[in-house]
Amino acid sequence: MSQRPIHFYFRGAVRQLEGAAPSRTVLQYLREDAHATGTKEGCAEGDCGACTVVLGEKVDGQLQLRAVNACIQFVPTLDGKALFTVEDLAAIGQPAGTGLLHPVQQGLVDRHASQCGFCTPGFAMSLFALYENNPHCPSRSAVCDALSGNLCRCTGYRPILDAVPAAYAQERVSLERPAVLAALDEMAALPALDYSAAGQRFIAPRSLTELAAARLAAPHARLLAGSTDVGLWVTKQLRELGDLIYVGAVPELKTIRVDEKGLCIGAGASLTDAFEALIAFAPAWAELARRFASAPVRNAGTLGGNVANGSPIGDSMPGLIALGAQIVLQQGDQTRRMPLEDFYLAYQKTALAPGEFVQAVLIPPPPAGQLFRTWKVAKREDQDISAVCGAFALTLTDGIVSRARIAFGGVAATPLRARATESFLLDKPWCAATVEAAMDVLENEYTPLSDMRASAAYRSQVTASLLRRFWLENGGAAGAPVRLADVETLA
Amino acid sequence: MNAPDRNPPPGIGAGLPHESAHLHVAGKASYIDDLPELAGTLHAALGLSTVAHGRIRAMDLSAVLAAPGVRAVITAADIPGVNDCGPVKHDDPILADCTVLFHGQPLFAVAADSHDQARRAARLAKVVIESLPAILTAEAAAEAESWVLPPVEVSRGDAEAALTAAPHRLLGEVKLGGQEHFYLEGQVACAIPKDDNTLHVLTSTQHPTEMQHMVAHALGWRVHQVTTECRRMGGGFGGKESQSAQIACVAAVLAVRTGRPVKLRLDRDDDMRITGKRHDFTIQYEAGFDDDGLLKGLSLLLASRCGFSADLSGPVNDRAVFHADNAYYLDAVAIRSLRGLTHTVSNTAFRGFGGPQGMFAIESVIDDIARHLQLDPLAVRQINFYGDSHGEARNTTHYGMKVEDNVIAPLVAQLAQDADYARRRDAIAAFNAASPVIKRGLALTPVKFGISFTATFYNQAGALVHVYNDGTVLVSHGGTEMGQGLYTKIRQIVAHEFGLPVEDVRLSSTDTSRVPNTSATAASSGTDLNGKAAQAACQAIRRRIAGFVAERLGIADEAVIFAGGLVSAPGFDATFAAVVADAYRARIQLWDAGFYKTPKIHYDQATMQGRPFYYFSYGASVSEVAIDTLTGEYKVLRVDILHDVGRSLNPAIDIGQIEGGFIQGMGWLTTEELVYKADGSLATHAPSTYKIPAVSDLPPVFNVALFDNANVEDSIHRSKAVGEPPLMLAFSVFFALRDAVAAALGAGARPSLDAPATPEAILKALHGGTL
C-alpha cells in the first residue's frame, strides 16, 4: 500500500485527486469541485436517483457498467474505476461536436419523458447503463427494475418507459470500451490506495491478507463496503467517520461459488451479484431481490454489508437464516463460522470481535424437498423499507413437517427466528388445521413496535398472514389465485 | 355543444417537445443551484425547533458563530424589516420570535463558506424551549375551537328538512391524509447584492412578485429595490407558491447583512420538515336520498388541519367548499368548513388547492349511498350529475353559478363504453365469487373542476414581447415554468401569431424587472392568463407591421398575412426577418407589452355566491385493482382516462399533465402517508420513509384519451387549463380499492377505509376498521 492520490477515469482520461476529505461524496465532488452540475441532488440518501452516475470496472476481462447513487459514494471509492455522468452521454458514438444526443436521451425527448427535468439526468444514466448492458430492448419489467431507484414526480413514468424502445429503434451507439479498459489496466498497476486528507485516512487493501492485516492494525477504523448506509451517516447525521478501511478492492471477497458445501458468497459481492446467485440457488429469492432497495443500491451495496450492518430491517437475513446460512468471520489468519441468527446479539449489536470482519456467507445445500419462500411487505413495490420481511423453509416427509426454519425482520430488535412456531409445526401434518393453529402461535411470537412504516398490530397480523400465504402456495390453494403477481386485468 | 372554431389554427395543437427537453436529458438545463457561483458566495442553513409549541427561554449561538467557515448568524431580531412571510395574513414568522409554533420551525440561520459547513454549524446551537400544550390534529383543533380563520358556512335550501323528508339517511365519516409535494428540486434561493441598495434574488418559485414583496418587507425596503427571477423550477405543484418566501427572505437578509451573495438550499429532510403540505381533512356527512340514490339533502362538515398560520388556508378551504359538489347537483345542502389552527407545519397550496378534498368528500358520500342501496356506484353517480346546461333545472351550483359548459354525462358515457365498464363489472363479480384471497375492484369517477383564482384580482397577467430586427422573438411573461410546459405553449402561441417556426421564438426567464405585478403560476391558470397576454402583445406588434406593409402597398391592413415565416399580401411576399428589418428602419415599434384579465368572473367573499370560475374542466377515469386480503397489499391493474382539455394547444404536454397528475393523485390516496409522532415531529421526512409512486406503480394498462371538445368561453385558442384537474382522476383508484374491500366484506358493506389506502389501511378495513 502506498500513499498516493485517488486515480479514476473521468472525461476520457485518468484523473488524479488529492486534498478531498475521504468522506466527501462523489456528488459533492462533481457539483462543487468539478463544476459538473448535470448530476443533481434530490435527497442525499440514495432514495431518489437524481444523482445517478455509472461506474465502470473490469470484471473477468470485460468492462462492467453499473448505475450507482453518487450522493452516498465517497470519492476514494472511485479509485481504479471509471466514472460516467450525464455530460458524457452525447459524446458516445458520435464525432465530437455534432451536438447529437445519445439514443437514450433522444428517446426521452421524443417520448416527452421530461417535464421539470430535474430527475431526468438520473433516468438518463440508469437507462444508459441498461442500454450498454443489453444489446436488445429489454422487457418492460427489466426496464422497471433498472429504474426502481429513480423517482419522477411529474410524468407518472409512462413516457419514460416508452423512451426505451424509442432509444433502441435508433442506430445503436456504443461506448469505446478499449480506451476505458486500458485506463483501468493502467490504474490496476498502481499500488493499493492509502489516502489521507483532512485528518482522515482511507485505505483500500487489494487482498484478503492485506485486509486482515489492516483490520488488525486498526481495529478502531470503520469498515466500508457499498456505503449505502454509512453514506447517510455522513450526509444526514453529519457524523465524523474517522479512518476507513474499504473492502471493495479485495477480489477474494467478491467471489461467489457453489460446491458440495453449498453456496458461498463473499462479503464484498454486490447485492446484484449475490441475488443472482441466490436466485439460481433458490428461485423463491427472485421477488425479494426485485423489491430489495433499488438497482443502484443493489449495485453498490454488498451482501456482507447488509448482514454485518445488523439492522433489524435488513431484507436478506430472514431468508438466509431460514436457509440455515452460516456467517464466516475472519480475524488475522483465523476464521470462525456461526449460524447467522447467532451473529445478532441485540439492536445493532453483533458478535463481531475487534479486528474481525465478515468474510463470507455460506448457505448449505437444501435438504431434499425443502419448501422455501421469502417475502417483504411494504407500502410501495419499489425501493421501500419493509414493514415486515419473512422467510419460511419447511421440509415435509410423507406430509409431515420434518424440519422448519422461520425467520422475520421488522418485528424485533434483530432478525429473529420464530422458534415457537417452528416447534409447533414440527412433526405435525402439513394441513389447513395445522396452519391455522400455527398462525395463532406466530401472531404472538414477536412483540413488534409501531412506527411510520406500520403499527405493531399490522406487523403481528401480517407475520401470521405470510404463513397462510406460504401454505396456500405450497399445497393449500384450491385453484384461485393467491398472489397479486399472478393477476392481470380482466380485459 | 356550441363549438366555435372546431379546427385548430396552424401551429397550435402540435405535440411539440418541451422547450427544454434537449437540455433536461443532457444535464444542461440549469436550476438555481447549478448556476456558476459568484466569488465570495456564502451558503446558508437553518436551525430548527425540536418542540411543537413553546417559549424560547434561551438561544446560545456562540458555538454556531465559532464553527469553521461561519460568516454570519441571524435570528428574528436581525431581520431589518418585518419578520413575516405570510401571503395573506401576517402570521408567518421568517424566524421564530419568542414563541415556537411547530416542530421544525426555523429559529435562526447561519451563513458559511460552504454548504457543509453551514449545515454542521447549525447543529451546534444550544436552545432552551419551554414546552406548551400542543394541538396536533384537525379533530383536536375543532374540539378546542382553535382556528386560523373563522369557520365558513354555505348552504342552499333547507338541508335539515330535506334530510328529514328523504326516504333514506346515512351518516358517515372519513379521514383524508395530507401530501408532501416532493418536488425533486428542493427549495432554493440565491440573493445577490447589487449597487445602491438593490438585490437580485434567484428563487425557485411559482410566485416571483410575491417573493419580491416579501423580500422587500423583510428588508424594510421598497419593492423596486428587489428583483426576483426564476428560469425554471425542478417541480412546484403548489409547494413553491408561498413556501419559497421564507427561503428567499433568509437568503436576502443574510446577503444584505454580509454584503455577499448568499445561497440557501434546503437539505431534503429540512425541506420536508419546514415547508407546508396538502391539508389533511376529517370529513363528516349526513345524506338523505331516494331509492335510486338521488341526493335529496346533504349536511357536510369539512374540517382541515391548517397548521400554525393562515398561509393560503382561507382560499384552499374555500375551494374545498366550492368543489364539494364535484359533478353533482346538490339540491338542499349545508356545508360547514373548519380551518383548524394546529402546532404543525403550515399547510399550503398543492395541485387542486382544496378542490380535491371537497370532491373526495362528495365521492365518499355517493359511494356510500350506492353501497347502502346495493346499486352500482356508477349508476348513482350518473343519476346525480348536473343537468343540461341549456335547461332550467339542476344546473346551478350551491354557490350560485350556472354550469354552462357541462359535458360530464356524455364524457362519462363515452368512457364507460370505451373502457367496457359494464362487462368488466360482471366479470369482476364472477371472479370475486370464486377467489377468496385476491379480490378485485372497479370504479369510475368523474371530475369537474372550476378554473380561475377564486380571488378575482389574481386573474390578470402581463407579457413583454420583443421582436429584434433580425426577425427573432424574445418573450417574457408573468408565468413560471415548473415542468408543466407553460413556456412551450407560450412559444407556440407567439410563433403562431407571427407565422414563425417555434425556433425563432425564445422564452426568457420570469423576472419581475421585465413583467411586474404578476400572479402566482397556480390555479391551473398559467397558459390561460399568460397566453392571452402574450397574444395581445404579439397582436399589437403585428398590427403595426401589417400597417407598415399595407401602407407601402396601398392595401388594407387586413390583407397582410403572417404565415410560414413570411409576411404576405396580394402580390407581396417577404420573409418576416426582411419585413422587420425594413420596419425597424422606418421607426416602427417592434416590441410591446400585453395584458389580460379574465372576463365574466365575480364573487362575493362574504356570501360565497357568484361566478368565481370562468369555466369548468371535465374528466373521468376507470380503475381496476386487485387486493391481497392476507396483507392488504394491492396492485392497480388497468386505468382508462378520458379528459377534457378543450382544444388542446399541445396534446403531448396535455397528456403528460393528465398522466402525471393522475399518478400524483394516486400517490396521495395510496402510498403517501405523512406520519407525525406524539411530540408533533414529522416521522416521514425523506424519500426513505415517505413513498411517492415509483415506476412499478404505473398501471400495466394505462389508456389516456382527450375528449373532443372546445372551450365554450373565449380562452386562448379555446383550450382549457390542465394542471390541476387530472389529479382528481385518481379517485377511481381509491374507490376501486374500496370496491375490492367491499367485495371481501359482502353485500351492503361500507368499508371503513381512510386515505391514504396503504396496505395497512386496506387490511384494517378488511377487518371492520380495527386491527
Relevant terms:
heterodimer, A: 491 residues, alpha+beta, Ubiquitin-like (UB roll), DNA polymerase, domain 1, Uridine Diphospho-n-acetylenolpyruvylglucosamine Reductase, domain 3, 4 domains, five-stranded mixed β-sheet, 17 helices, 21 strands, 32% helix, globular, B: 771 residues, Aldehyde Oxidoreductase, domain 3, Aldehyde Oxidoreductase, domain 4, 3 domains, eight-stranded mixed β-sheet, 19 helices, 29 strands, 29% helix, 25% strand, disordered N terminus
Question: Can you describe what's shown?
Answer:
The complex is a heterodimer of chains A (491) and B (771). Chain A is 32% helix and 23% strand. In chain A, helix 2 packs across helix 5. Chain A folds into four domains: 2-88 and 177-246, Beta-grasp domain (Ubiquitin-like (UB roll)), CATH 3.10.20; 93-168, DNA polymerase, domain 1 (Orthogonal Bundle); 253-363, 2-Layer Sandwich (Uridine Diphospho-n-acetylenolpyruvylglucosamine Reductase, domain 3), CATH 3.30.465; 370-476, CO dehydrogenase flavoprotein, C-terminal domain (Enolase-like, domain 1, 2-Layer Sandwich). By secondary structure, chain A is an alpha+beta fold. In chain A, strand 20 (400-409) and strand 21 (416-417) form a beta hairpin. Chain A is globular. Chain A has a five-stranded mixed beta sheet with strand order 1-7-8-10-9, with helices on one face. In chain A, strands 3-2-6-4-5 form a five-stranded mixed beta sheet. In chain A, strands 11-12-17-13-14 form a five-stranded antiparallel beta sheet. Chain B has 771 residues and is of the alpha+beta class. Chain B has three domains: 41-133 and 187-265, Aldehyde oxidase/xanthine dehydrogenase, a/b hammerhead (Aldehyde Oxidoreductase, domain 3, Alpha-Beta Complex), CATH 3.90.1170; 281-454 and 604-766, Aldehyde Oxidoreductase, domain 4 (2-Layer Sandwich); 460-597, Aldehyde oxidase/xanthine dehydrogenase, molybdopterin binding domain (Aldehyde Oxidoreductase, domain 4, 2-Layer Sandwich). In chain B, 29% of the residues lie in helices and 25% in strands. In chain B, the strands form seven sheets. Chain B has an eight-stranded mixed beta sheet with strand order 3-5-1-12-9-10-11-20, sandwiched between helices. Chain B has a five-stranded mixed beta sheet with strand order 7-15-14-13-8, with helices on both faces. In chain B, a hairpin with a 2-residue loop joins strand 21 and strand 22. In chain B, helix 14 (486-498) runs parallel beside helix 15. The model of chain B is unreliable at 1-8 (pLDDT under 50).
